[in-house]
Amino acid sequence: MAFEFNPVTMTRFSPELVRTQTDAVINTQGGVFAYCATGRRRNMLWAFEFAYQRAPDDLIQQAGRAGMDISSMKDRLERIYQSGRHY
Fold first, then answer.
1. Per-residue pLDDT for 49 more than 80?
2. At what angle do helices 40-50 and 56-65 cross, to 10 degrees?
3. DSSP 48
4. Does the pTM exceed 0.85?
């Protein structure tokens, strides 16, 4: 088991933190367990990771199926999706 420390707070959220999380997931063999107390930051990182290539409604629906409402992020996700660039 490997451990990656990626301290994300709602006041400290950046493209670098998204990239750190993405790199950790890509470079991990096997399953990934991303923890945060409520799951919101974990879901935000996940959504920003894929926002450039997946429609916001798809991301919002998939997060909803996992029990997380990220609909408040729709405008940001839409801007990233339209730009075609990573967060």
1. yes
2. 150
3. H
4. no
Domain ranges of the chain: 34-87
Residues in the chain: 87
Angle at 86 between CA 42 and CA 7, to 5 degrees: 35
Which residues pair with residue 12 across a beta bridge?
9
What confidence score (pLDDT) does residue 73 get?
93
Query: Phi, psi at residue 22, to the nearest 5°?
Result: -60, -45
Taking the chain, what is the end-to-end CA distance rounded to the nearest angstrom? 28
- Is residue 5 scored above 90 in pLDDT? no
What is the spatial distance between Cα 73 and Cα 47, in angstroms, rounded to a whole number?
9
Say which residues have a Cβ less than 8 Å from residue 74's Cβ, sequence separation at least 6. 56, 57, 60
pLDDT at position 60? 97
